[in-house]
Write a structure and sequence with these properties.
The chain contains 2 helices and 4 strands, in the order βαβαββ. The protein is of the alpha+beta class and 99 residues long. The protein has a 4-stranded mixed sheet, covered by helices on one side.
């Protein structure tokens, strides 16, 4: 997969990452991007999913944000990123085609 748009949330607080995700998806849709590379950062092995501000928290929350947010219906698929695009620290979001 070759991403059309890259959205880097790595290193942000949870609140800032959530806002950046929303604004980035609005921008990607306006640009008619089809595949978004979403960089979340790698979680620590064996870490709990609800960690607040600790490392890997964005990765743990991003699927919930996408499911509950206004962009969920625009996403056709979510796939793990290839190693060259960040591997476990990134995801591909495939957006639905506009008609």
């Amino acid at each position: 997969m070759a991403p059309d748009f890259t959205l880097d949330l790595h290193g942000h607080t949870l609140d800032a990452a959530h806002r950046r995700l929303d604004s980035g998806l609005i921008q990607a849709k306006a640009m008619r991007a089809r595949v978004i590379l979403l960089i979340t950062g790698k979680p620590r092995p064996g870490a709990a999913a609800d960690r607040g501000e600790r490392r890997g928290a964005i990765r743990a929350k991003v699927l919930d944000w996408l499911a509950a947010g206004p962009h969920g219906s625009d996403i056709a698929a979510i796939r793990s990123a290839h190693r060259r695009h960040g591997g476990d620290g990134a995801l591909y979001l495939v957006l639905r085609r506009r008609r």
